[in-house]
């Protein structure tokens, strides 16, 4: 064995032990095949294992250095006047034969070999060397008395003497499995064993080759093997180590890390391991990453911990080091594994859950301990090669991986480790282009089998992205046997069977496990190389593809600069694949290039090797969440496709968080991804879809396109979890918190969801007007049809059942903070005024997150009071998503006088000729209304002193149009007709406040809102984006100036599906903020009373504390037109 | 077979073990322990030393704390040079960890730029990238990028996200297939011994005859003293990212693979160590 190579150990499902050299290409069967093994744990010099008899065995490599143990004993004599030095000792003296201290009786014949694995090298002999110098006289040393200092020369006063006898024994059982026999008390025997792990060689150098050997018995007890070192490779005894529970499995790292798993699913971590105490002192408990699925398997390295939970998910433990062996948190990794094993240099191997292949974690480096991707080891077994020839071993090995293809395929995969790249699982589809011959062949062994196979194979050639794939998977599973059977029977007769390569994602691979076991892996990029013809002349069967049960890399040294040959199959075909895919330029072989690689490697060694324990300057980011969602793909034909989604949240060195959402998808068998910076997301909006729980995500760009990213989850809960997390991240990255400001712009969608946006001063004025597609909207709990607000923070709404609601967030004392701190607080804060309606109430994604974002919080609300009352109303929500959460309190008496509306005022009936459907009040007491017949009315002489005014002025509607909504700003009056035309009232002056004519502004308008700055916002239909058309779009009238009150053009914002907007709170103007009293700016509310039965009732204007004379009012009201 | 991409990774993940100690004259309330950190070679001192600052501020009286600055053996360390460059230039061939002295007083106005916030570093970093692209592509690539791509470059550096950074930086390293390289190579040559901050000239990756220019060609052209042997011995080392590439290395390859994130090749010329 070359010095530079080392071995990976593995056990197949039949208990056969194999090794794979880092310079080799084949699994080699362990030399000693007498036994079948369950588990092995290897280090460089040896391997320990549990055989099928549940006994512990050790396999010590033969090496240049013999394992010798020197036994010694001392012969002691006293001088006797009669016979000189003789065997007769005084009664107080030591034994005639003793150990060096004289305390232990040690006769020559009391020495026996400790186990059958030792042999004596020779007989006992006298050691004539004392202190390195040869002595004469038979090796005696002399002293005055026992115990004392011995000299080699006899003196006059030398009364005692002693000499040392030596005998060497040699460990003979090398390169074989040697059973660890135990001389312990049988009652204490930790028998039978269940798991074993060895490591700890870096804790101390003394004695040479010291190892920590830990084992777990079937009863769940943990045992430590004492005194295992080079010259005592079997150790001496087992010591029982108390544990807080029954242990299933244990893992010991090269240094001081030791973890074990408990039956209950937690992990326990040994603390206090050091050179003086390699057994450690105490245990700490680490909980499983998932509450439902306990930890099943654990493996530790120098400063990493990997785990597998019972659902086979793989986890990486963050923040593990000597000082904190428990680490900080779990990160879920891609892939499902039976077990994982951390070896030298924290490299990781695993056994795939479905295919039982051994995977190597690629890209594990000191800076990226979690690595990049799982890569299947496709090496065949030596035995296969010799038995069936190269072609068969090619098939059995089954993979056409090459490093370089892989790298290219992953070159643009983003982010780190766990989620950045998918597991590549071996899988294949047979393209039975020549089905007839196959069918014929299959019929030899049974028609049914042949037909089924043909069907499966046909299915498998379908695009893996296609949803039909699921069926194919099912079919293949049910017919797995037939399939394999068929291969056996038919391959001989079908030399030209072609293999077509597809890439099947993890999900799919799970669906047809046997195919992946029995056949081949490949990479996505390979498929682009086209099809390969395989002369499948040789017989092969499932048995020839190794299925692994256990792997141990504790002795396997993989460094980044020694290429492994494990990922490609050594055959003529493979090399041709490689030459196809690799373009080796002369530059790559140039000396300067080699020099750079070598020097960089040396630099890393020099600058990093001894300093790995130093803290990293930049904290690595955290993957907050990964998962599988469906994505409405952006190429035709559009449809939902499964994607992997990862939200990466990182904390900048300034402590600020930012997040990126990655969506990984397959495009024509090529892995691709899109990513979105959450600080660019403008809105997350739930999209109701019959079959899917989906939501849309917009950025300014996507708003322009009218083509959001649409994602769907399988369950509502899953969607809400994502929405909550994404919303939180959006708000975090924009530093938005707390309740909406008084100036907020409110809008509702046609589903009744309420969104609020904080206007920036640049929205309405300033040198650089902010496009309204850049507005960030966040959802506020609740469900409304119409919403209105003023700039004092009063927000009212009307629900679909015509109930009026007032927003309590303004005076509720900051509900967001309540939510952020704890659910209890929220409950307390929600006084009786906050009534929750509808049975299906739920936590709202935006308001509903707590600081921990626990989805369980939401159920706090399930039986809030008010439920009864609301169900009585028997309203039919337009969607199942109605939620009344705390920011809203119901005004049950609706539009009746409330204290909120001013001191002591009451509703005064104002007589009208006919029912009104809309009313709006401007900044200067201009009261405008729309009657049911579609005409407009202006109320004369309304003033603070006389809020009811005196009489209605009928104002005819524009010709042939029936009006439906009016909105009055500071001075502007806009109306909307039932055909979607927006009109501006011309000719309004202080002396002629009714105005003169209607000016057409725009068509395709559904709703409008005129604000206190006379800004005009509408909900427009039919807005053409670059990718799609949207109805119900928020639009902003640009170019509105005192001289140009109608504005010039539309700027398009969020949509479609929007129903209503109110900008009546937004009085924030850019630099030229109006400086008069708030009372004057205070716009009256406007309430859309469309198809409301509240005919004839009008809403009084707010009383203002500061009285202004009408004369002044009118002067200020001067309009230049 | 090692991939060129590994060079990018090695360059990116280069770390310098550093020991920060507080300057002896700084007034503290109790003794300041040294602080050990692995500094990313490609980053900037003031970008990655928040922990250091916090550590030392703990032992200082509040009124004594002002802008932090760093010094190595009497030389104030310029935060606007990448850390790897500072190390190569001032401290190669010395024992590790690199011992940096932390100051809070007597800011050396004439030597150092102020760095009051991360925004200053970002501005500097982006300015360098833009300058580099002006040399490489007449600014075409950087100008075609969206603002978020610029942000991604910066965030990639700030958060030590190799993939994130390279997803964008890749575009800055491309060149039209009809050309064999960049227009000009963005490089800066620093000499420890001289007063002049650095040498920067226009240098094309391809000779007029079509052959690739090498590192040696570049040095011969702009800094011949660096490769002139004295008494038959090389008195200098040419160092990039802590290694000495062979002078035969094509400069275009170096620019693509061994530039700092700011897209410049920062080359240090230092005296050969005398054993």
UniProtKB/TrEMBL annotation, chain A:
<feature type="region of interest" description="Disordered">
    <location>
        <begin position="1074"/>
        <end position="1121"/>
    </location>
</feature>
<dbReference type="InterPro" id="IPR051513">
    <property type="entry name" value="Tectonin_beta-prop"/>
</dbReference>
<feature type="compositionally biased region" description="Basic and acidic residues">
    <location>
        <begin position="1074"/>
        <end position="1100"/>
    </location>
</feature>
<dbReference type="GO" id="GO:0031410">
    <property type="term" value="C:cytoplasmic vesicle"/>
</dbReference>
<dbReference type="InterPro" id="IPR006614">
    <property type="entry name" value="Peroxin/Ferlin"/>
</dbReference>
<keyword id="KW-0677">Repeat</keyword>
<keyword id="KW-0472">Membrane</keyword>
<feature type="region of interest" description="Disordered">
    <location>
        <begin position="465"/>
        <end position="495"/>
    </location>
</feature>
<dbReference type="GO" id="GO:0097352">
    <property type="term" value="P:autophagosome maturation"/>
</dbReference>
<dbReference type="Pfam" id="PF19193">
    <property type="entry name" value="Tectonin"/>
</dbReference>
<feature type="domain" description="PH">
    <location>
        <begin position="622"/>
        <end position="731"/>
    </location>
</feature>
<feature type="signal peptide">
    <location>
        <begin position="1"/>
        <end position="19"/>
    </location>
</feature>
<comment type="similarity">
    <text>Belongs to the TECPR1 family.</text>
</comment>
<keyword id="KW-0446">Lipid-binding</keyword>
<dbReference type="Pfam" id="PF06462">
    <property type="entry name" value="Hyd_WA"/>
</dbReference>
<keyword id="KW-0072">Autophagy</keyword>
<dbReference type="GO" id="GO:0005765">
    <property type="term" value="C:lysosomal membrane"/>
</dbReference>
<protein>
    <recommendedName>
        <fullName>Tectonin beta-propeller repeat-containing protein 1</fullName>
    </recommendedName>
</protein>
<keyword id="KW-0732">Signal</keyword>
<dbReference type="InterPro" id="IPR011993">
    <property type="entry name" value="PH-like_dom_sf"/>
</dbReference>
<dbReference type="InterPro" id="IPR010482">
    <property type="entry name" value="TECPR1-like_DysF"/>
</dbReference>
<dbReference type="InterPro" id="IPR001849">
    <property type="entry name" value="PH_domain"/>
</dbReference>
Automatic annotation (TrEMBL), chain B:
<dbReference type="InterPro" id="IPR048318">
    <property type="entry name" value="ATG5_UblB"/>
</dbReference>
<dbReference type="GO" id="GO:0000045">
    <property type="term" value="P:autophagosome assembly"/>
</dbReference>
<comment type="subunit">
    <text>Forms a conjugate with ATG12. Part of the minor complex composed of 4 sets of ATG12-ATG5 and ATG16L1 (400 kDa); this complex interacts with ATG3 leading to disruption of ATG7 interaction and promotion of ATG8-like proteins lipidation. Forms an 800-kDa complex composed of ATG12-ATG5 and ATG16L2. The ATG12-ATG5 conjugate interacts with RAB33A; this interaction is bridged by ATG16L1 and promotes ATG12-ATG5-ATG16L1 complex recruitment to phagophores. Interacts with TECPR1; the interaction is direct and does not take place when ATG16L1 is associated with the ATG5-ATG12 conjugate.</text>
</comment>
<dbReference type="GO" id="GO:0044233">
    <property type="term" value="C:mitochondria-associated endoplasmic reticulum membrane contact site"/>
</dbReference>
<dbReference type="InterPro" id="IPR048940">
    <property type="entry name" value="ATG5_HBR"/>
</dbReference>
<dbReference type="GO" id="GO:0005776">
    <property type="term" value="C:autophagosome"/>
</dbReference>
<dbReference type="GO" id="GO:0043069">
    <property type="term" value="P:negative regulation of programmed cell death"/>
</dbReference>
<comment type="subunit">
    <text>Conjugated with ATG12.</text>
</comment>
<keyword id="KW-0472">Membrane</keyword>
<dbReference type="InterPro" id="IPR042526">
    <property type="entry name" value="Atg5_HR"/>
</dbReference>
<dbReference type="GO" id="GO:0034727">
    <property type="term" value="P:piecemeal microautophagy of the nucleus"/>
</dbReference>
<comment type="function">
    <text>Involved in autophagic vesicle formation.</text>
</comment>
<dbReference type="Pfam" id="PF20638">
    <property type="entry name" value="ATG5_UblA"/>
</dbReference>
<dbReference type="GO" id="GO:0061908">
    <property type="term" value="C:phagophore"/>
</dbReference>
<dbReference type="GO" id="GO:0034274">
    <property type="term" value="C:Atg12-Atg5-Atg16 complex"/>
</dbReference>
<feature type="domain" description="Autophagy protein ATG5 UblB">
    <location>
        <begin position="184"/>
        <end position="269"/>
    </location>
</feature>
<dbReference type="GO" id="GO:0000422">
    <property type="term" value="P:autophagy of mitochondrion"/>
</dbReference>
<protein>
    <recommendedName>
        <fullName>Autophagy protein 5</fullName>
    </recommendedName>
</protein>
<comment type="function">
    <text>May play an important role in the apoptotic process, possibly within the modified cytoskeleton. Its expression is a relatively late event in the apoptotic process, occurring downstream of caspase activity. Plays a crucial role in IFN-gamma-induced autophagic cell death by interacting with FADD.</text>
</comment>
<dbReference type="GO" id="GO:0034045">
    <property type="term" value="C:phagophore assembly site membrane"/>
</dbReference>
<keyword id="KW-0053">Apoptosis</keyword>
<keyword id="KW-0072">Autophagy</keyword>
